[in-house]
Amino acid sequence: MAADPYAILFEPVNIGPVTAKNRFYQVPHCTGSGWLRPRILADLRATKAEGGWAVINTEYCSVHPSSDDLPYPSASLWDDRDIRAHALMTDKVHAHGALAGVELCLGGARMANLSTREVALSVGNLPNLAGNPFQTRQMDLQDIRDARRWHRDAALRARTAGFDLVYVYATHGYLLSQFMSKSINRRDDDYGGELKNRVRLVREIIEDTRDAVGDTMAVAVRMSAEVNGGGGGDGNPLTGETEEIFGMLGELPDLWDININDYSLEMGLSRFVPEGSLEPYVAGIKALTSKPVVSVGRFTSPDTMASQIRRGILDFIGAARPSIADPFLPQKISERRFEDIRECIGCNICYTGDAKGVPIRCTQNPTVSEEWSRGWHPERIRPRRSDASVLVIGAGPAGLEAAHALGKRGYRVMLAEAKRTLGGRVSAEAGLPGLNQWARVRDYRVGQIDKMDNVEIFRESAMTAADVLETGADHVAIATGAAWRRDGFGAEDLSCSAALAPPDALCTPDDIIAGHLPEGRVIIYDDDHYYMGSVIAEVLRAKDRDVTLITPADVISSWGAHTYDRWRAQSRLMEMGVGICVSQRLRSFDGRTVRTACTYSDREAETAADALVLVTARQPNDALYHELMKATQHKGQPPPLSVTRIGDCNAPAIIAAAVFAGHRYARELEEEIDRDNPLKYDRVFFQDG
Ligand code: ADP
Ligand code: SF4
Could you identify the atom of ligand 1 that is nearest to the CA of residue 479? Predict the structure, then answer.
């Protein structure tokens, strides 16, 4: 009998004094909750432990008020009153047989302490590296002693809170990276100059931590594979001083957690970065240490994971996003239920939670951050309340998720879709450059529905109000989506004041997706500010159109800053030769010339163009809903018990919002929900004690 190729993923691995039950390792990742929302956080982490992850880490955990990153919510261990919040998580993680880790953090010049108003401390007198007009004080030897003490005290609190692993966080540009940096560290004392000195504080903190926790906890270090280097991946990926650093520190910790300098690659969008992209960078690390090594790569394929271990690249499969999209990924692999894995699509909507200081959301997993607030479990759902039947109209992300979750509840579901293809906007957009993984939103749900006898799909069934009533369904969910507007209406032009003509020279993303590409010189006007404008520019430029993207914002894809779309999108458009014109509001188009006005000076500008693509706002496809509401007022047929609009047909938004809407509809159908107060609000509780 052939050896089981996946068994290797379920081998236990020692991390110093503790043992991980398998190789699935949730690396530290932000949740947008941190110390602000301890209960939401504890249940989010606990759900992953339940799903089979062997190690569950916190996000970066500040050790002192002089490392305060608000409005980005970190965890904290500033004093003993923080312990209670962490113990909530560690207890729950342990209950599922997993290890809990904490990533202690000294922020240095990356944190401006906007909330605590402490002066930030760093290796020198540096500008704030996150763009705030605050500088740091250069740490003197007493400051260094203080920082070591804060870190040590936090490690002891972490032990009291029940953690099994404690991190020394020496990368991502925070304080310890600032000390190690050749360009930033200009000190002439024992902490500056030659590498041995620049690494001194890292070494001291590793030793302090070990000394404080003894063999009661494992000590992990998070480090870049490219310290003072960069641009590896050319067969000799260990650039800079990494090799020398491992010569000095390689055997000190119990585990190395390796990342790289380029965040847009480390946390790469599927639009730009494939699975396993860090391999060329981390491949050499294991030769430099006998300690276990973990790294990430948006791993969702069990074959890729097993191969990483078998080829000796990694000891642990590190994951942030795949563990958010599917907290039960390890369990599903262990049960060989590969078709049940809800694969991360690499859209980084989860990252927007941290960027905006709210609990993280996920396109694939509508239950994330709702485990405590709404009592939603990613795998379990309450059985149906009655024998009622449900008609879901539209098989986009909202309709598919509603049908899937209703099916799981045991309802009889009819899913009617006008087209032959299921998936709505995700199928349409998956054909655009770089967005093919959007199709996973469809494929996971269709795969699940196909296994259910109680959900029937009717393709090529464009429903009218009469058709709906004829089905006799007890409940009707209308998930008919939205269409891009062609009248210029958008945040910058709520009164449609721009004079736009002729109609055949105006297009929308829907036209381009349908294959109707304009000819000649094309202007894309982007008042949407997410990915669609730049993706459409890519489509047209690849077909040799002369393309200029105009936006009223000061940068292209401004909302894409929260997902990391923005920078790579702009680089790509520039490489492709797309013209970029910012801070311009659309005034008119007559088929030959686009007129815009500067958003600051109102000065007008003209650009010659044969066609104008409007990426501004979408119009809900809600005609069926209104038709149905009217029809149900006539006597004759008994009206359905409920008719509800969900997803883009209700209010156009991101795909994650449509999936959430579908899921919520299914969860709440025939349930007693306090509509005014549908969820529990987490509140910080530790100040009181
Ligand atoms: P959402 O993001 O809210 O799920 P989408 O636009 O992705 O919305 O999907 C809407 C789906 O509804 C599309 O697949 C579309 O073909 C389908 N649809 C629209 N109108 C009807 C209708 N009258 N009957 C059946 N399906 C419809
Ligand atoms: Fe993956 Fe997107 Fe979910 Fe983040 S939001 S975990 S990138 S699917």
Answer: 3
- 160 and 189 in a single domain? The answer is yes
SS (H, E, C) 360-420: CCCCCCCCCCCCCCCCCCCCCCCCCCCCCEEEEECCCHHHHHHHHHHHHHCCEEEEECCCC
- Asked if residue 371 belongs to a domain, the reply is no
Tokens representing 13 are: 């691995």
Same domain assignment for residues 461 and 501: no
Q: How far is 436 from 120, CA to CA, in rounded Å?
A: 43
Does 456 share its domain with 493? no
Cβ pair 495, 585 in contact under 8 A: no
Encode pLDDT of 124-160 as tens digits. 999 999 999 999 999 999 999 999 999 999 999 999 9
CB 260 within 8 A of CB 281: yes
User: CA–CA distance from 521 to each of 32, 359, 543, 574 (Å)?
Assistant: 43, 43, 12, 17
Chain centre to alpha carbon of residue 14? 30
Any idea which residues carry the catalytic annotation?
Answer: 174
Amino acid 689: pLDDT: 43
Task: Note whether 29 and 131 are same-domain residues.
Answer: yes
Count Cβ atoms within 10 A of the Cβ of residue 184 and give its class: 0-12 exposed, 13-18 middle, 19 or more buried.
buried
Asked if residue 375 belongs to a domain, the reply is no
> What's the CATH number where 224 sits?
3.20.20.70
Binding site membership of 346 for ligand 2 (Cβ less than 6 Å): yes
Q: Is residue 567 part of a domain?
A: yes
Instruction: Decide the pairing of beta strands 584-589 and 593-598.
Output: antiparallel
Which residue ranges of the chain lie beneath pLDDT 70? Answer: 1, 230-239, 635-637, 683-689
Give the mutation target among 48, 296, 349, 368 for probing the ligand 2 site: most ligand atoms within 8 A of CB. Answer: 349
**What pLDDT shows up at residue 235?**
43
Q: Which one of the ligands is nearest to 414 CA?
A: 1
pLDDT at 262: 81
* 12 and 155 belong to one structural domain: yes
pTM over 0.90: yes
| CATH number of residue 442's parent domain | 3.40.50.720
How many structural domains compose the chain? 3
Question: Is the domain of 94 the same as that of 242?
Answer: yes
CA nearest to 369, candidates 41, 21, 36: 41
The CA 396 to ligand 1 mean position distance, Å, reads: 6
Note whether 284 and 177 are same-domain residues: yes
**Could you count the other beta carbons within 10 Å of the beta carbon of residue 458?**
15
Q: Does the beta carbon of 333 lie inside 6 Å of ligand 2? A: no
Same domain, 341 and 470: no
pLDDT (tens digit, 9 = 90+) per residue, 115-131? 999 999 999 999 999 99
Peptide bond into 17 cis (omega under 30): no
Question: What residues make up the domain containing 124?
Answer: 7-356
- Find out whether the beta carbon of 88 lies less than 6 Å from any atom of ligand 2: no
Residue 678 placed within a domain: no
